[in-house]
Specification:
Helices cover about 50% and strands about 5% of the residues. The protein is α+β, with helices and mostly antiparallel strands.
């Protein structure tokens, strides 16, 4: 109407390209308001026209610019910011117009108010984290966004979290897809009722503006698309157009998010056909629109599509809509290029072989199909939008927009129909696409939303022929890659198969189509239509037959194949996805009797397809040799539908079975596969490479087995139950190529098999028969029984985790079938058959998972070796199951030896398959069994215990399933006259067992031993004739027998003439001339199966007459034969069990067994030993000797090993008690002796050839992580929780040092504290020593070793040559003797005064070391180099604290801090106190003694000026107090009370010449203790308030003159208070200070406790030091007496004090000078400082140390809380959401793993953080993977996860997405390894990270 007219009139207006003039721009709102008013009037023609004109102008303003931007590159380059600006402008106009003059945001809010939010519909793209709840889902594709999931109630449901692969949408609120109980709070209310109606004028403008806007977008898309020259849209151009359109599409997307009201307007616009016709018809005088329409038509053409007006063309039966079509259309301009393009496209689909053409024409002859493929007609914006979406290969934004609209029901239907209409076009585009993976994902993203809804799928199936379209499209897709099949008859084969090497199959390009097909088949209504439509079934079978026989393997006989093709992956995937999954989908709808018809249809067309296939490959009766294909989907369809028919639909099996001839053909190929499996396992296919083994494994692997091997075996079982048993058995042995082996003769000629393969092929054939006869998966087991059997088989092979069990139990592979893993039956069966073993810890650090292990009764009754053999991918698993079974029997005392696989009772057969048991009762099998028993008894070659085991198993199966009719009377009647037709009289095993066979005629090579015997026996040969002659040769014409049967069946009604065996086939079996001539010999046998069994019993037990019929003693046995005694055991037990069963089955047998046993074989005189027996005896004897020899060797080896272990020590666990090498026990040895673990020599460490300890140096910040509060820090899991590092030990020490440096002299500050809280160097050793020169050559050899090590030799890293512990340096051992040590330790009785003087003198003497060391010796060089190593271990920032860089004070500080770090860490390893005492484990491997020597040597190089030596301040009173303060301009020294006492201790001791005298040590400790105590008093005095202070000052002053006033804390405290009161220390700044101090009532006890706590840290470190330097043991004690014990151990406490009961710390004081004088001297320094800086004066006082042990952050119980907060958290550095977020477990920092965004100077963020936070050690939790990664220096390792699911398993990468819970034990282990610095030793798999983490 008006709109159209306006559009036509408007036309292009180049002059007004920038029509919205500045004035107008400001006035957009006004214009909009005016127009809205105009349109609201009843007569709105004028308004409408005005609006259209405006829109035409505004929206076409972009037109020329867009063209320039896309078409001519140059113009765009010149245009600068042009295009963007115009588009912005247009969008602004649209927003204004929509809002009708109001603000756009208010408009949005207004529209949102009318949103009836019944559906969530949130659309997400790949990698989004969503949830799936199986309990609430109706469709298996159901998914929820995190918000809806957490808002709903899913407790106790079977849900998991998953990462979306292709994108998806939230189904909350959609009751078609999920149960309403699972809806979240927002979408539970059916809110349509209470939402008011939308006012008309609110959206009026939208209805006018949006059609133009969308048309504008379409024009854009038309113009931007240039059909490229090649057949490939050039990615770049398309992406450019899309980038330009980004704002427009985003605008549309925002509109959809405004809720239901706006969506319904959009739906109207998109589906209104009139609008579309008016705007896009391309008629009228608008040149621009016309041009655009032409481009659209060209695009259609080039896609191989036609516009339906061209129907006349379809008169021509031309498969390709080629040039002719275009010519008719008259598009002369385009015709040239397009015609050629299009036809080439179709050509290559035809496969360029005539045969493809033939097939193709046949398929495409009906126009319906053709139109499906080639016709598109667009009637609305929606349809053309989808067309362009496909053309542009599904841009993400467009997909999201189209999906965002889905909550609108009307749109959903329209869109689904449009999608189906474009289905063929999608397939064509997908096939050509380069980004087929991305495109596949986006297609499925859309289709899964549409087809999961049953109602919708049904509607589209009925109205749009959805099934026809899908099947046709799939067929077309596969037709493009067909090749001629080479199976069977290579030259004449007419069969075509898909070529697995093609990209289409290799890259799974067909996946989206197949996935959609499976999806719609899961809906019953759709599947029913499919199964009823005969045409569709025919087409589908046609499709399946493309896969029949694909990926054919031909056995390489000469040389190894050059190139191993990996196409088998593609082949297996294709059969599973394209054939098996749709099959399972269909089967799931055939569960009840009413669906019989469907099965009949499928079976009928399946058989037809099979018949066609046999004809096409020219198959008669023999498969081609040396060929195998594992892909027989037609056979499997047939088998599975048969099984379903019998199991669920009560169909009569015979009514759906074909004739005998067809059955014979059907069994050939599946049987060929079974034989080939045996050949592959016998290594007959080795020349085909590893891939053939891969195929054999995949065929039986858990995801494939129930679509591959199970149907194959079932089909063979069906064939066996209906065919002649003799024929079937002989076929089996012939297929397995062991016919020639089945001879009584001891030698034979096998024309088709090498001797070395015979044994395993025979085992294979027998095993196959056992499986065939005992497997009941499809023959009567219920689903629960099957599940139980599968589970038992898997658990018997190995203990399994819950998830691996879920994975290994073959479930119905069609995910849509509704049988879900983790269903209730799974859990209940699991708890019935298995016990859960909780995850345990091994000290080696290997993390265990929670495992399930079979219950005892399962081993006892349910262990089924047959099932195990069927389900093992690796042969070793069978062995593993048997080993576990053996172990169980030994443990439970049921059987001591090596048991045989137990015989397990089977589920009863379904009546339809009773015929299967005839195999056990046919003469052919009995002859084979008889022959094999005889051969085993006679020790012929190539027979194994396995063969015997299987033979006995088959006999037992036969006895269990014997026909009941046999009565003893009729059996006795079988005289010789009935024996002429064969060896055995009847076909019943029970009676045949007792039948004696006297003579057998055999064909043997002339060289065989039998031939010579023959001449002797010839005398009696004439008497043979009457006896057995007729039947003798029977078994060896096995093949002939089979041929005869086959011919009989084929020629039932034809003349005898055809009875000839076809020469083609027989020629294969005999290769004339290739072997020595065969002659006939006659053997005397005179055995029956029973007698053979009894003799076997003798043979197995190694005793004559070992078998005695048990019923002779205990008649009961015959009445209740179920005896547990026989259920487990070896071959002897099996034989006894069989004989017992035989006796039970018939009285005759019982009698005969008794007879045989009565004929007691006389003891054989030794000379008559037959050769065979001699051989076995020899063997036994030889074995016995070998065993003895072995025993002897082993014993010798063990004793050697023991002595080695004694010398080499245990190195496995760091805990084991290893004595240090220094042997202190014998005082007469003068020097410490070390063993070098490289050269093995032992000796002292000397100066020219020093020995060193293997050490690992690492920087550590563990100490710095101590905090002062007991509450552990938690990992932040919300924005409010943050962790600030202010209260860590490292931060506090840092602040203190910088504060000191502000006010005092730098060099003095650096002596007053220790560093190394962060980045301190920790030294640890494994305790092994080596010569340093040996070590150097060892490093050299490592450097030349090209093997990839986990460490870097260039950085000096190596592993200890003995215990392989990681190390990176060698610490030289100081040459010294032990005796000297003992002398030094004797206490002398010098007074403390003398000692103080000695200490001072010793410190002042610079060259106190022996001269030799100060000169350059090897030892001193090594000490230098190790010192360099220690320095380089940590970063510069952790070494340099001085204001003047490079000052020697820095080194000085660093060196004594290394000692401090190591002592403090050892204290932490001991749990923070020394109560446990003893030489703890850490002490045994400590290298502190050696380390001290190295440090002391270097400390002595820096002598402290005696003026400044703190020692003097501690021990002397200085006269001129005031003079110190004279020089104001110079910064003062640090007051001694501000010094850290432990640092002073280390400085004093390291300044002394080594080795140190014990007296001097004690003296230093005593002096320092006085200072420490005074510091405690000062701290205490500051802690209390003014009144307390004055009270104490008073009480103490009274006692000042008592005798031991210097040892009374009250006196001292009062003195300290009075001294400090002289300064400003106690001055409170105003009154607010007082309020903050909580008044504490200090009692004498609490003060004493405070002082002890204050002094303890110092005492602990000092005791440790004493322990290491003098080797004294630490006493153990209770926590409360730690102070007194340590102080007496250190010699602070005079001995007589120890009796006093209330222990007083002050009694330890021993003042070197009068206490009051020295205290006042110390206090004076502080007073003079507080004069100027009262505040800092208080802050700098040493406070009591209240550090708790370091801990990692506390983690929440449930992993989800961490995941939800962090996985969407933005990084603080780059403000993006990281791809791999991680969080530091030490300090809680959030980092980007591998994020290039946060890279600094080539270091990624995690590595950087590990250096800053842990000095090179980082512990990160990877949020998206739930695992912990450790960074140590330049290496990293995956540590494992501390979160486990309910079954005790990790879920790395959150693949399963089950809820995870913290495992406290694991976290403790992690923390322990962090604190003890043992990551390097315990974790084995390290790799370099190249700073990229």
């Amino acid at each position: 109407m008006a709109a159209a007219a306006a559009a036509a009139v408007g036309g292009p207006q180049p002059p007004q390209a920038e029509v919205p003039a500045p004035g107008l721009a400001l006035d957009k709102a006004a214009t909009a308001a005016h127009l809205k008013a105009a349109l609201s009037r009843p007569d709105n023609r004028a308004g409408a026209e005005e609006l259209q004109a405006l829109l035409e102008r505004v929206l076409s303003a972009e037109r020329p610019l867009a063209a320039a931007a896309d078409g001519e590159e140059a113009a765009a380059a010149g245009g600068g910011g042009g295009p963007g600006a115009a588009e912005e402008e247009a969008l602004e106009w649209c927003k204004c117009l929509l809002a009708g003059g109001g603000g756009y945001d208010e408009f949005c809010a207004a529209v949102r108010a009318y949103d009836p939010a019944a559906l969530c519909g949130l659309v997400w793209t790949a990698n989004f984290v969503a949830y799936r709840c199986r309990t609430c889902g109706i469709s298996p594709c159901m998914s929820l966004c995190a918000e809806c999931f957490h808002q709903g109630d899913h407790t106790g449901h079977d849900f998991n979290m998953f990462r979306s692969q292709a994108g998806g949408a939230c189904d909350c609120g959609d009751s078609n897809v999920m149960r309403e109980s699972g809806f979240c709070k927002r979408h539970q209310i059916k809110s349509s009722s209470n939402i008011p109606c939308v006012p008309k004028d609110l959206l009026m403008m939208s209805e006018f503006v949006l059609p133009r806007f969308i048309f504008c977008l379409i024009q854009y898309l038309r113009e931007g698309y240039n059909e490229p020259a090649a057949d490939v849209p050039s990615e770049k151009d398309l992406n450019k157009v899309l980038q330009l359109l980004e704002p427009q599409i985003s605008f549309l997307e925002d509109l959809t998010k405004m809720g239901g009201a706006m969506r319904s307007v959009l739906t109207q616009v998109l589906t209104n056909q009139q609008n579309y016709k008016d705007l896009t018809s391309g008629l009228g005088e608008n040149a621009c629109a016309r041009k655009s329409h032409e481009k659209y038509l060209i695009a259609l053409k080039s896609s191989g599509l036609t516009y339906p007006e061209d129907k006349l063309v379809y008169g021509i039966q031309e498969p390709s809509a080629g040039a002719s079509t275009l010519a008719v259309q008259g598009f002369a301009s385009a015709a040239g290029t397009l015609g050629q393009l299009d036809s080439s496209d179709e050509e290559d689909q035809d496969g360029s072989q005539g045969l493809g053409k033939r097939k193709r024409v046949k398929l495409s002859s009906n126009t319906k199909d053709q139109s499906i493929m080639d016709v598109l007609k667009h009637k609305s914006f929606l349809e053309e939008l989808l067309f362009w979406t496909i053309k542009y290969e599904f841009p993400q934004k467009m997909v999201t927009f189209l999906l965002n609209m889905l909550p609108d029901q009307e749109y959903k239907v329209a869109f689904t129909k449009t999608f189906v209409q474009h289905y063929a076009f999608i397939m064509k585009t997908l096939k050509k696409s380069h980004e087929s993976d991305t495109m596949s994902n986006r297609i499925v993203h859309i289709s899964v939303q549409l087809f999961s809804n049953e109602e919708l799928a049904r509607q589209v199936t009925e109205e749009c022929q959805l099934l026809d379209i899908m099947v046709t499209v799939l067929l077309y897709m596969m037709e493009s890659c067909l090749i001629k099949s080479e199976l069977q008859d290579e030259e004449n084969s007419l069969h075509v198969v898909v070529n697995c090497g093609e990209a289409l199959l290799k890259n799974n390009t067909y996946w989206p189509l197949v996935s959609d097909f499976i999806n719609i088949l899961s809906h019953q209504s759709v599947a029913k239509r499919f199964l009823e439509d005969h045409g569709l079934l025919v087409t589908w079978m046609n499709f399946v037959s493309f896969f029949q026989g694909m990926n054919l393997n031909k056995r390489e006989l000469n040389e190894h194949v050059e190139f191993e093709s990996q196409t088998y992956y593609a082949a297996f995937a294709a059969e599973l996805e394209a054939c098996a999954q749709p099959m399972w989908g269909l089967l799931s709808h055939c569960k009840v009797r009413e669906t019989q018809e469907y099965t009949r249809n499928v079976v009928r067309y399946c058989l037809e397809a099979l018949q066609d296939w046999f004809d096409a490959i020219n198959f008669v009766d023999e498969p081609a040799p040396n060929q195998v294909t594992f892909h027989l989907p037609l056979h499997r369809y047939y088998a599975m539908f048969l099984s379903k028919a019998v199991k669920c639909q009560e169909l009569d099996l015979d009514s759906v079975l074909p004739d005998q001839e067809m059955l014979m053909k059907l069994m050939i190929h599946p049987l060929q596969i079974q034989a080939s499996l045996a050949e592959i396992h016998s290594n007959m296919w080795v020349r085909n490479g590893l891939q053939i083994k891969g195929q054999a494994m995949t065929y039986v692997q858990s995801h494939f087995c129930n679509s591959m091997i199970d149907p194959d075996i079932y089909l063979l079982q069906v064939c066996a139950s209906r065919l002649d048993p003799d024929y079937f058995i002989s076929s089996v042995f012939e297929r397995f190529k062991v016919v020639d082996l089945l001879t009584m003769a001891s030698q034979h000629q096998n024309t088709v098999l090498d001797a070395e393969h015979e044994r395993s092929m025979l085992e294979g054939a027998l095993t196959f028969l056992v499986i065939l006869l005992s497997l009941r998966l499809h023959l009567g087991m219920s689903d629960d029984e099957i599940l139980r059997a599968e589970m038992v088989a898997q658990l018997c092979m190995n203990d399994r985790t819950h998830s691996s069990l879920l994975d290994l139990i073959p479930e119905n592979p069609n995910p849509k079938s509704g049988i879900i893993p983790g269903s209730y039956s799974f859990e209940s069966v699991l708890s019935a058959v298995a016990d859960f073993k909780a995850p345990v810890f091994e000290p080696g650090g290997s993390m265990q998972q929670g495992m399930y292990t079979p219950k005892a009764e399962v081993w006892d009754h349910e262990f089924d070796p047959v099932m195990v053999i069927l389900r093992t991918v690796y042969r070793r698993d069978v062995q593993s199951a048997m080993d576990r079974y053996t172990a169980f029997l030994k443990q439970s005392g049921k059987f001591p030896g090596n048991p045989w696989p137990p015989y397990k009772k089977r589920t009863p057969l379904h009546p339809s398959y009773k015929g299967l048991m005839r195999l056990l009762h046919c003469k052919t099998l009995h002859i084979v069994l008889f022959t094999l028993l005889y051969k085993i008894l006679m020790d012929h070659q190539n027979l194994s215990e396995h063969v015997l085991c299987m033979v006995l198993y088959l006999i037992e199966l036969g006895l269990e399933n014997s026909a009941e009719e046999e009565s003893d009377e009729e059996a006795s009647a079988c005289g010789p006259e009935r024996c002429h037709d064969s060896w055995f009289p009847g076909s019943n095993l029970v009676s045949n067992m007792r039948h004696f066979i006297n003579y057998v005629r055999v064909r043997v090579p002339e060289t065989a031993p039998e031939v010579k015997r023959d001449s002797l026996a010839s005398t009696s040969s004439d008497s043979l004739g009457s006896l057995q002659n007729s039947g003798t040769a029977q078994v060896f014409s096995l093949v002939a027998e089979r041929r005869k049967k086959f011919q009989e069946i084929i020629n039932r009604n034809s003349s005898e003439a055809n009875q000839v065996v076809r020469p083609k086939t027989s020629s294969k079996w005999s290769a004339p001339g290739s072997a020595p001539q065969l002659t006939t010999a006659i053997l005397e046998i005179k055995e029956s199966i029973l007698s053979l069994l009894i003799k076997l019993h003798h043979k197995l037990s190694g005793k004559q007459n070992s078998y005695y019929p048990p019923w002779l003693d205990d008649i009961e046995i015959l009445i209740q034969p179920e005896i547990p005694k026989y259920s487990h055991g070896d071959g002897i037990t099996a034989v006894e069990r069989i004989l017992l069963k035989a006796a039970l089955q018939s009285r005759m047998n019982k009698r005969i067994i008794e007879e045989i046993c009565r004929k007691v074989t006389p003891p054989v005189p030794p000379k008559k030993i037959t050769a065979a027996e001699k051989k076995t005896l020899d063997k036994e004897e030889r074995r016995q000797k070998a065993r003895e020899r072995q025993q002897k060797l082993l014993a010798e080896f063990a004793s050697r090993q023991k002595s080695f272990m004694e010398t080499a020590m245990d190195v496995d666990s760091p805990e084991s008690d290893i004595p240090m090498e220094i042997t202190t026990a014998e005082p007469q040895v003068s020097e410490a002796v070390y063993d070098c673990v490289i050269c093995g020599q032992s000796g002292p460490s000397s100066e020219d050839r020093p020995t060193g300890l293997v050490v690992l140096l690492q920087a550590s910040s563990v100490l710095g992580q101590c905090r002062d509060n007991v509450e552990p820090k938690k990992l932040p899991i919300s924005e409010e929780e943050q962790i600030y590092p202010w209260d860590t030990c490292a931060a506090v020490h840092d602040v203190r040092l910088s504060l000191l440096q502000r006010y005092f002299k730098d060099s003095s500050c650096l002596l007053a504290v220790s560093i190394g809280w962060e980045g301190g160097v920790y030294v640890q050793t494994c305790g092994h020593t080596l010569h340093i020169d040996c070590h150097k050559s060892y490093m050299e050899s490592l450097r030349n070793d090209q093997v990839l090590q986990g460490f870097s030799v260039d950085k000096g890293e190596f592993t200890c040559p003995l215990c392989r512990q990681f190390a990176n340096s060698v610490l030289p051992c100081y040459p010294g003797s032990n005796v000297e040590n003992n002398l030094w330790q004797r206490p002398s009785n010098k007074s403390i005064k003398d000692l103080i003087k000695e200490v001072e003198e010793l410190q002042g003497r610079p060259g106190a070391f022996p001269v030799s060391i100060s000169s350059e010796t090897n030892l001193s060089k090594e000490m230098e180099s190790v010192m360099k190593d220690i320095k380089n271990t940590t970063q510069k920032k952790y070494r340099d604290y001085s204001k003047t860089p490079g000052s020697p004070d820095n080194d000085f500080l660093f060196m004594y801090s290394v000692a401090r770090t190591n002592l403090e860490l050892e204290l932490i390893h001991r749990g923070g106190n020394l109560c446990s005492g003893g030489a703890s484990a850490a002490g045994k491997r400590s290298c502190l003694n050696q380390l001290f020597h190295v440090l002391a040597l270097h400390m002595r190089l820096y002598s402290i000026d005696s003026e400044y030596n703190p020692w003097r301040k501690l021990t002397q009173l200085l006269e001129e107090m005031s003079s110190q303060l004279g020089n104001e301009e110079q910064q003062p020294e640090v007051p001694i009370l501000y010094h850290d006492v432990t640092s002073l201790l280390l400085i004093q001791i390291l300044m002394m010449p080594q080795p140190l005298h014990k007296d001097h040590f004690t003296c230093i400790v005593k002096v320092l203790f006085t200072l420490l105590y005074t510091q405690g008093l000062v701290a205490l005095s500051v802690k209390c308030n003014e009144e307390d202070r004055s009270a104490w000052k008073h009480t103490g002053a009274l006692k000042k003159n008592t005798c031991d006033a210097e040892k009374s804390y009250e006196v001292l405290l009062s003195f300290v208070i009075s001294e400090l009161s002289k300064g400003k220390l106690y001055h409170e700044e105003g009154t607010q200070e007082c309020a903050t101090i909580i008044p504490v009532a200090w009692s004498p006890e609490s003060m004493e406790k405070y002082l002890q706590e204050f002094c303890l840290p110092f005492l602990r470190i000092t005791s440790l030091l004493q322990h290491h330097l003098f080797g004294e043991d630490l006493p153990s004690c209770q926590e409360e007496e730690e102070f007194s014990v340590l102080s007496s151990c250190l010699g602070l406490l005079p001995t007589f004090y120890q009796t006093e009961h209330p222990f007083i710390s002050a009694s330890c004081l021993d003042w070197p000078v009068p206490a009051f004088d020295i205290i006042s001297q110390w206090c004076f320094e502080i007073n003079s400082f507080t004069e100027r800086h009262a505040e800092q004066g208080k802050a700098l006082l040493i406070q009591e140390s209240k550090w708790k042990l370091p801990h990692l952050l506390q983690l929440p119980e449930n992993y989800n809380t961490i995941f939800q907060y962090y996985h969407r958290k933005t990084c603080s550095v780059c403000t993006k959401v990281p791809k791999d977020p991680a969080v530091c477990l030490v300090c809680g920092t959030f980092v980007c793993l591998k994020g290039l965004c946060c890279k600094q100077q080539s270091y990624c963020e995690c590595v950087l953080h590990s250096q800053n936070c842990g000095a090179g050690t980082g512990i990160f939790l990877l949020i998206n993977a739930s695992v912990i990664i450790i960074i140590r220096g330049h290496r990293f390792c995956l540590w494992g996860s501390v979160y486990l699911d309910a079954h005790g398993e990790e879920d790395r990468d959150l693949r399963r997405g089950k809820p995870l819970y913290i495992c406290k034990e694991r976290y403790k282990v992690l923390e322990q390894q962090w604190i003890s610095h043992t990551f390097d030793h315990i974790n084995k798999r390290w790799g370099p990270h190249y700073n990229g983490l």
